[in-house]
Amino acid sequence: MVKSQKFLPDNIDRQIIAELQKNGRASFKNIAGKLDLSDGTIRLRVGKMISEGLLKITAQVNPLYFENSIVALVGMSLEKRDHRQIMEKIARLSGVKSVINSTGRHDLLAEVFFHSREELRSFLMEDLNQIGGILSSETFIYLDAIRKWADFF
Known about the structure:
Elements: H1 11-22, H2 28-35, H3 39-51, E1 70-78, H4 83-91, E2 96-101, E3 108-114, H5 117-131, E4 134-141
Antiparallel strand pairs: 1-3, 1-4, 2-3
Helix pairs in contact: 2-3
């Protein structure tokens, strides 16, 4: 069985990404003009990067903009080294923005965004308990951040 090769962006893809990072609403025509390419080329390349899982274009908010919102990093130690299955379960929970398999004191890290302390409490006390396989957790609440963006819901 031949394993498919991982998509690797070239210099043009990197330039397209750089333009989209400046303005995610930039038109393909506008980007094409800046890079001296056709808008069809830009459209095809952006489509390829999205389908390969390299690129996602989305609207994000500063989660610390909202006075009562809570952004936190939850470190978890696991009973067994069954990371992938537990990561997938945690990723499906409301409020979870990302789940990371990490080195160090914790096996997993989950970045979470909630609109209230009650939502965070419910996540820690109820939702994580239902996952199983988690020995302990430690929560780090963000007090302030620079260049921190998240999906709103």
